Amino acid sequence: MGERIPNWLLQRSHISPNKPALIFEDQVWTFQEMKDIVQDLQAKLASSLKEQDRRAAILMKNHPKMVWLIHALQQLGIEAVFLNHRLTTTELGFQLQDSQTNLLFYDETLAEMANKLREENPQLRIYTTTQYESFPNQQLEIRDEYDLAATCSIMYTSGTTGKPKGVQQTYGNHWWSAIGSSLNLGLQEKDSWLCAVPLFHISGLSILMRSVIYGMPVYLMEQFDEEKANSLLQSGQITIMSVVTAMLSRMLETLGMKTYHSSFRCLLLGGGPAPLPLLEKCVEKGIPIFQTYGMTETASQIATLSPEDAFKKLGSAGKALFPAQIRIIDENNREAAPNQPGEIQLKGPNITSGYLARPEANQVAFEQGWFKTGDIGYMDEEGFLYVLDRRSDLIISGGENIYPAEIEEVLLGHDAIIEAGVTGIKDEKWGQVPYAFIAARNSVSEAELMQFCRTHLAAYKVPKKIIQVEALPRNAANKLLRRKLLEYLEQEKQS
Amino acid sequence: MGERIPNWLLQRSHISPNKPALIFEDQVWTFQEMKDIVQDLQAKLASSLKEQDRRAAILMKNHPKMVWLIHALQQLGIEAVFLNHRLTTTELGFQLQDSQTNLLFYDETLAEMANKLREENPQLRIYTTTQYESFPNQQLEIRDEYDLAATCSIMYTSGTTGKPKGVQQTYGNHWWSAIGSSLNLGLQEKDSWLCAVPLFHISGLSILMRSVIYGMPVYLMEQFDEEKANSLLQSGQITIMSVVTAMLSRMLETLGMKTYHSSFRCLLLGGGPAPLPLLEKCVEKGIPIFQTYGMTETASQIATLSPEDAFKKLGSAGKALFPAQIRIIDENNREAAPNQPGEIQLKGPNITSGYLARPEANQVAFEQGWFKTGDIGYMDEEGFLYVLDRRSDLIISGGENIYPAEIEEVLLGHDAIIEAGVTGIKDEKWGQVPYAFIAARNSVSEAELMQFCRTHLAAYKVPKKIIQVEALPRNAANKLLRRKLLEYLEQEKQS
Q1: Does domain A4-387 have CATH number 1.10.10.10?
Q2: B349: closest CA of chain A, how far (Å)
Q3: Fold topology of A395-494
Q4: How far apart are CA B374 and CA B379, in angstroms?
Q5: Assembly ipTM
């Protein structure tokens, strides 16, 4: 009963052998060609596997080689741990250790990071693309089917407290996410999806999964470039593109008075709340914008607003996709009335099977099949979702999630610091940026703390400002009240 | 993991309340309106239910009231037993008894049949539409979700031997069938499906299920009418239509030199092998014909040929739908080489959970997850399926399946008959018609036997000819060789 489906790469190359699968710069690969490359790669990778290998990490930038690797690991039944190369080696080292991953594939441009990770973890075997491409081919049994309940990919996210957690995305999560999206956006013979978001994010990976499930070409960009993106959207080759707010702003700025080709039918806007003026500008220009709500734990979108409602429901993330359900739970643990805010809770077959090896976090996050996002929102009378706040304390900066707890933990690692609190401040360019507030036991300069953060945190997570205070706001239970940090900032301005 | 999905009627009316769901003659109902009618009906039907009722039979002609009833039974979690009103009351009586169904809903035009069924089965409670619509409303709990493994509908088919069997179609079978079809045919905002096939067949019921899963209007015809169908296909209102060969022939004949609207994108041709001249005519006229292969046990299509291959692969039923698999097994129980015929075996989440209360038949029909169709076919080098013969002895007449065993059993019930064999003979109008061969112990006229058949069999199943022979052809194991019956006919012609 739907617990297994055909190996989707083989099935797709069987059904649509000659359809383009991937376009990168001036090169095109059909599904048949992609399958052949992947099967060859899979046979090579098999030589590098030890019996106890259950996972392999991918440290790469968007590139066809990354696409082949993702599919080859699926063919081998190896779970892929996606590493964000913007993180520091300390952060990535934790992810490798936490997921007990001893095998890592990387591309040449990230050799320095890979080598550093190996230095810190002597058990780690690392191979660059040129290395693994020269491995001998090993005879392999072909997997006819995928088990929908098996883990396919792992991506790390952080919560309100504690260390980052590995989100397990099953084959079923990706399958149902793709199906839910198609039931909402439709599926057309001429569809092609522009992927200018990182493949190590669910926003990028989900495009690859849709490609093979739908039989749809993906235009892959190594990194986002607003001029290239605009020119593709004007060419008529692209029908759908995924963006975050910061990308959209830059695209509109460069676009000027022009607009996109009439066959471009969907600009899927995710990764955090969008400012109204930006949405209004799209509506004015007739750009078919679809606001969405989703996260790593939902394997991409779980709610999407369609353009026919875009103007009427500006600011809403739309309704649940067909296989999914959304409810709002108030402080009394009851379903909230329309327009009453509460915690957004989600249900559906696209939702993660759980955090890797975190029984306690899973117990907190799941309740009778519902996933508790921690995000705050409400539904109007017609059932349109409005997201007020991504997790009470989540900071979204240029589409990247920043978790205050993570920065606080780094700051607390500094000898001089007694307590630390981080919150997001509105920023015109990035949407939000992190500000830190600290109480120190002895004198320490902001510059020194900044330098300390840079060695432990990805650049985009380093606080833009570190403000010294007497003590941090806490409630009776001594829990840090991050929202109150903003008041300190107001006081500072006034003084 | 995909074992439950939202109650699809409620979810659809939540997501697309104002989209048209059903069009019948000059009336239109949106999904919201349909949901309201169904919820009211469901509350009324609940009053007629006894605790032990697990199933209810539907004896109706295509009509919105039948659509409401189908959805209302799903809301109530009652399995619907679909009765083909072209059958005799003897045949239907068997189906009711076999499925232990004691509740039957019918429309006024079929009152005579319903009353007769009740006469023969005093336990049966029968209600016509006007009766059940006046039942009091009973307060009900709403089913938020459907269990994909639960049986939704039951339709009877016959095998090569024995009594007809009830095919159980689960919610998951319908769901995956709809999804598999959409991944192949695509899904467009403007889609609408013309249903001129009976809702008591899987060809019709599957359109209703797609409608609610896709959010797509269905144009329902009470009965097929080639002129009405042609005019709808010329109007631009319809994008997809399901037909069987006999319907298509009549439509093309009436169409003359004209063709269909450019927005009409798919003529789905199922229900048995199609004659090549008919396919060629469609290709010539630019009619987007999609040959398919499917059956009650696969909850509609499992393979479909797309128009871009229609000419190149004329006569093929195409490739498996994405979630499904097809293999050809030869006489040595090994997978057949390309172009070598063998039994068509199928796998996928759209395949029946099994025949109702037939453990032996299920054991014969299923092997390690594969469903053995008994149909003969081959796959070419590219994996295109060619169906040579629907079950070695299945007769398809005007899109209706006729099982020789069923007719033989009736004939054997006549005092004069010692043995009986039935086979299909080519017929210009119906594709095939059944001919019977009998050996009699005492003299009996063809007319008398015809009359006897008419009282026990649907009109279309009554043999067009009953031919008396000395003895029937049998193999060493005394098994009837139905194919050899044709030789008798040749001999008769020659003599």
Answers
A1: no
A2: 5
A3: GMP Synthetase; Chain A, domain 3 (3.30.300)
A4: 16
A5: 0.85
